[in-house]
Amino acid sequence: MRQSIRYLRKGVIETVEGLDPKETLLDHLRLTKRAVGTKEGCNEGDCGACTVVLGRMRDGALHYEPVNACITLTGMVDGCELVAVEDLAEGDALHPVQQAMVDHHGSQCGFCTPGIVMSLFSLYQEGTRPVSRQTVTDQLAGNLCRCTGYRPIIDAAMSVCAGLATDAFAREKAGTVRSLAVLHDGVDVFVGDEQRFFAAPASVDSLARLYLRHPDATLVGGATDVGLWITKQLRDLRKIIWLGRVEKLDRLSVNAEGISMGAAVTHARALDVLAGVDPDLGELMRRFGSTQVRASGTVGGNIANGSPIGDLAPALIALGAKLYLRRGDDGRSLPLEDFFVAYGKQDRLAGEFVVGLALARLRPDEAFRCYKISKRFDEDISAVMGAFKFTLEDGRIAGARVAFGGMAATPRRGKQTEAALAGIDLDDSSTWPKALDALGRDFQPIADMRASAEYRQEVARALLMKALVEVAGAETTETRLLGRRERADAA
């Protein structure tokens, strides 16, 4: 067992001992390392001023991904290369991304600029070539700027990302990979004592034993939610178990029958896989948080926190996903919709944790649609999220699964709506109102700052109508996926 956190920065392995379990990476950089180029803005993972980049090994390759340092815990950089804005320049020569920002006048007040530079540094290292304008705007969805405006920033990105990376990080990649291999020692990490600790188990068995001994500990995947407990709710989390080092918990398996993914699979990794199930899922994931949030947040974390407005759960419920849990040596599975019991309460025993989930691919006789309604297109929480899977037979709906987020205290199926949908004729819209009316019996939403109850009810009806209209148009998931691939090839 190791009692310290280790990470790579500027070619040197840094060791952190005596770690406060809830210390954020932003505080570590600014207060301990005096790397004050990384800024504190919103302190909740929205504005991107605190963006840094983590280099992580995945499937034998080094990947650079942006994260929000304000809600990333220091312990979560164990085994990674940490890149802050101070680390980019070579002597007096600016990094190509920094120089492009200067050349295209991409900065005014400069407060947000370090985070923007780091997001573009990640794109410079990772982006497909040639980079598209849409790719750049997606990359910057988690970075706010109110001075310059985005045109010169986007122009800078298009310029510098036109070719392959040629900076010091690209040249020294082989050495970085060797250094990261040293950090991946496969041992459990436990910093602290039995009353206050940051732990990072290396195996599912170690995690099961530790969590059974400390069921009051907080499990952390990407900290995109837990980080706000610390920075906004000021909770004193005394025991934290990070899942990012657990072997096999980040496994992602895709075959002809379906998909299985471990609880620690990030949204960034899940995006293309879920987009391969249906294009609507791909669009949902593209709007999921920001690039920084998707690089950190995990599928298991999004489910385990039980948010009634989480985007992913309703879609997975409509697809019939199965959830796997473990407590000590015992494991069990259940339909995902049965996991959510009440607001803030899930069917999870003390010391029990989410291991992963599985879902089957859509059959040729099935159609799927999902839609997110929010005040802002990018990086916003849903007011209503609707997901629908229809089993079709001779122009009629033979069976349906309907799920909503934002319409109840938990993500939930609309079983009366499903029953009313069975048998309706897609070519005869006069048979549809009974299903639309059933929504009012399934859901009685509340009013809050995001939407009124009346608005939610009306939008839910509109989304079901939209799904029926689209599916009645007879375009199958297979042809929609084919069209998506053809557009990607053309781009």
Automatic annotation (TrEMBL):
Pfam families: CO_deh_flav_C, FAD_binding_5, Fer2, Fer2_2. Residues 190-364 form the FAD-binding PCMH-type domain. It is an enzyme of class 1 (oxidoreductase). Its EC number is 1.17.1.4. Gene3D superfamilies: 3.10.20.30, 3.30.465.10, [2Fe-2S]-binding domain, CO dehydrogenase flavoprotein, C-terminal domain, Uridine Diphospho-n-acetylenolpyruvylglucosamine Reductase, domain 2. It comes from the Bacteria. SUPFAM superfamilies: 2Fe-2S ferredoxin-like (SSF54292), CO dehydrogenase flavoprotein C-terminal domain-like (SSF55447), CO dehydrogenase ISP C-domain like (SSF47741), FAD-binding/transporter-associated domain-like (SSF56176). The lineage of its organism: Bacteria, Pseudomonadati, Pseudomonadota, Alphaproteobacteria, Hyphomicrobiales. This is Xanthine dehydrogenase small subunit. Keywords: FAD, Flavoprotein, Iron, Metal-binding, Oxidoreductase. GO terms for molecular function: xanthine dehydrogenase activity. The keyword Iron applies.
